[in-house]
Amino acid sequence: MEIKNNQILCIGEVLWDRLPSGAKPGGAPMNVALHLNAIGQNVSIASRIGNDEPGEELKSFLEKSGLSTELIQVDEHLPTSEVLVHLDENSNATYEICEPVCLG
Fold first, then answer.
1. How crowded is residue 30: how many other Cβ atoms within 10 Å of its Cβ?
2. What is the Cα–Cα distance from 18 to 83, expressed in whole angstroms?
3. Dihedral of the alpha carbons of 13, 19, 22, 24, in degrees to the nearest 10
4. pTM of the predicted model as reported, rounded to 2 decimal places
5. 78 near 102, Cβ under 8 Å?
């Protein structure tokens, strides 16, 4: 079978996971795009960030990771998505999804 188009498009959220140890870029679609890019696939990501410092930091992270930000939209009204990660005494995580935020 011949593949005629080898470009992959990941669509969905890019966000900040706010862990007790610090913030980490996250979002399943972004993680998939990063892994595909790392193994040499032609991949792009389409998402949305806020017009704020966390959004700019995510955009910079994507660029430094080798992903194009051409399909990243900037929302002028809503902030960049983030998830607060809480760990209990056994290091089990619970997640607090902050709202309202722009969605990818």
1. 23
2. 6
3. -20
4. 0.86
5. yes
Say yes or no to pLDDT of 1 above 50.
no
Closest CA to 61 of 31, 101, 39: 31
Helix, strand, coil percentages, rounded to 5, for the chain: 20, 40, 40
CA 8 to centroid of chain Cα atoms: 16
- Distance (Å, rounded) from C-alpha 23 to C-alpha 13? 16
- With CA atoms as reference, report the closest residue to 49 among 103, 96, 100, 11: 103
First-to-final CA distance of the chain = 33
Question: Which tokens sit at 93?
Answer: 């995580």
- Residue ranges of domains in the chain, CATH in brackets: 7-97 (3.40.1190.30)
Residue-wise pLDDT tens digits, 24-78: 999 999 999 999 999 999 999 999 999 999 999 999 999 999 999 999 999 999 9
Identify the residue whose tokens are 């607090």: 96
